[in-house]
Amino acid sequence: MNPAAGFAALAAVCTATLLIGVYGLRISRTTGDFYVASRTVPPWWNASAIGGEYLSAASFLGVAGLILVTGLQGLWFPIGYTAGYLMLLLFVAAPLRRSGAYTIPDFAAARLDSRPARLVTSAVVVVVGWLYIVPQLHGAALTVRITTGLPGWAGAAVVVLVVLCSVVTGGMRSITFVQAFQFWLKLTALAVPLFFILLLLGAGSRPITDGGAAFQADGGGPVYPTISLLVALLFGTLGLPHVLVRFYTNPNGPAARRTTLIVLGLLSVFYLFPTVYGVLGRVYTPDLAAAGQADATVLLLPGRLIGGASGDLLTALVTAGAFAAFLSTTSGLVVSLAGVVSQDLFRGSVSGFRWAAVLSALVPLAVALSTESLALAGTVGTVFAFTASTICPLLLLGIWWRGLTAAGAIAGMLTGAALCGGAILLAATLGGALGPFRELLEAPAAWSVPAAFLTTIVVSRATADRRPASASRMMARLHAPERS
Amino acid sequence: MNQEPLTPGWAPADPPAPGPQRVRVTGPRSGTGYSPARFSVSRELDEQSEVGELFIRSLIRSQLRLALVVAGGFGAVVLGVLLLVLLLPGNGVALWTVPLPWLLLGLGIYPVVLGCAGLYLRAAARNERRFRDLVSESEG
């Protein structure tokens, strides 16, 4: 592969991101602009931005890699990612928009009227955000190593640098533009090369599915991990900090719902493409699975099938799309983490927000540089399991159940974090020694999420005399529709 | 007695520089007592009239029931597809060499997601409209 193509793609995406960020800076005037774009972003822009932010390394590279390795089983990932958004629409979108809070800890504080609940929520949100940034940086390292030949750490460092530049200067307003742009870039970067690949294969009468052989060699897959994965993805999406903050950029509850519907459409269309890449990979690049490089399928396929200069050009486009994925998800996470950290540490000033952004990006960079990349989609699935076990009970019960108390919420979050985090660490350290329990511990969501819910409810009931006095008023605010 | 300030930070501020005033913007929202975004109908219910409380409770119940029904329906579809895929992995049904399980998981579920979302949006808006009508009736 021609490294020049990789360098050119990298430079182009980074420059475009920074330029749009600077352009956004000029129309970013107030604190409201800076944090949440003053809540005036129209649904289409906002939906593109949400899509841009949500489609991370796991979606752009990981899904195709997973389909290459596991076949049919891999298809459950994009389904879970999309259906997670449906759950968000059903249970969270409009009430959360009406809550008037900017971040999940703000919501916890307002709903439960409790400073400890706020602090625990902040800590959980920061952990989730950091865990989620790490695979993005792993993806960047992989992409840079494969397309330019540079050492992997350079890719992670470039992503962090560009994100910090655009976040520190522009805040949320410019991020909205940047991410809307990046969604369409990602879609184009997968669609155009795929179009030419299919055209070429069709013209040369080369097999696309190898007469169905691409779909062979796998059954339905194991039952328990699939169910646990679905639980994690369906309930984990609710609690992703960078996804939630986006809903505050809608002008009102109905607009928040409309935005979610558009996002669902965009996601459904998008996931078609990594799926086809994965199927083609099963025919043309099966060697990647054996080499442990399955996540590179999307990057390598255009070059392998279409050689020469046009192959380089298409590879450059895919590389650009991959970088857009790392940049947009990372910047979305950094913005929302910085919002949380600056609230609790720096009292919410804009300069505090900037310092918090630096802190939020450098910690995961350090973690990413000191760890090895695993399968991207799998790592992200683990983060979803953790989110579903901690933030999801707080949000769902906080929105729909008057009886939630601060003690219940804290107990639930800590239980979920301990169970889910403990299980994953245990599975990672003991591995094969666990025997039949390994499956249960590697994919803990199916039992850790119900356990967290149960703890929250039981403790809330036990402390029912300490229900916040403002609960009724908050419930009214969350659910009463805006005057139309 | 002429006393020096203890630290430089205590020195009186310089007179403001000429030109446009620099406005310091800060987060309006630390602590729990931030002022919320505009919310209107709930403002009237804020004073906790018993009727208002009743309306809100019934609105929340109907919205929750709606969300649970849609989520349950979707869950049933997913579970059905999961079982189908497990029980009939290679039953030979295929479209352009793509077997049925791949079609269901790769294509078929997405329209179901969108359909559920569309149904929910319409029904949720209807619930809210009914609530608004109730409130304005009880006011008028």
Name of the top-level CATH class of chain A: Mainly Alpha
CATH superfamily of chain A: Hydantoin permease
**Overall spatial form of chain A:** globular
Q: What proportion strand of chain A?
A: under 5%
Oligomer: heterodimer
In helices, the fraction of residues of chain B equals: 55-70%
CATH architecture of chain A: Orthogonal Bundle
**Mean pLDDT value of chain B:** 70
CATH topology of chain A: Hydantoin permease
pLDDT < 50 runs, ≥5 residues of chain A:
27-38
* Number of helical elements of chain B: 3
Region (Disordered) (chain B): 1-38
Protein name (chain B): Integral membrane protein
Transmembrane segments (chain B): 66-88, 100-121
Organism (chain B): Arthrobacter hankyongi
Q: Layout of SSEs?
A:
The complex is a heterodimer of chains A (484) and B (140).
Chain A: H1 3-26, H2 31-36, H3 43-54, H4 57-70, H5 76-91, H6 93-99, H7 104-112, H8 115-148, H9 152-203, H10 223-236, H11 241-247, H12 253-284, H13 287-290, H14 297-305, H15 308-346, H16 350-370, H17 376-400, H18 406-430, H19 438-442, H20 445-462, H21 471-479
Chain B: H1 41-45, H2 50-87, E1 94-95, E2 98-99, H3 100-139
Could you explain how this protein is built, in words?
Chain B: Keywords: Membrane, Transmembrane, Transmembrane helix. Chain B: It comes from Arthrobacter hankyongi. Chain B: The chain crosses the membrane at residues 66-88, 100-121. Chain B: This is Integral membrane protein. The complex is a heterodimer of chains A (484) and B (140). The longest helix of chain A has 52 residues, at 152-203. Chain A has a single domain (3-375), classed as Orthogonal Bundle (Hydantoin permease), CATH 1.10.4160.10. Chain A has helices at 3-26, 31-36, 43-54, 57-70, 76-91, 93-99, 104-112, 115-148, 152-203, 223-236, 241-247, 253-284, 287-290, 297-305, 308-346, 350-370, 376-400, 406-430, 438-442, 445-462, 471-479. Chain A is an all-alpha fold. Mean pLDDT of chain B is 70; it is low at 1-18 and 27-40. In chain B, strand 1 (94-95) and strand 2 (98-99) form a beta hairpin. With 140 residues, chain B is mostly helical. The N and C termini of chain B lie far apart (72 Å). Chain B has a domain at 66-140. Chain B has a two-stranded antiparallel ribbon with strand order 1-2. Chain B is 59% helix and 3% strand. The chains are: A mainly alpha (484), B mainly alpha (140). At the A-B interface, helix 2, helix 5, helix 6, helix 7 and helix 10 of A face helix 1, helix 2, strand 2 and helix 3 of B.
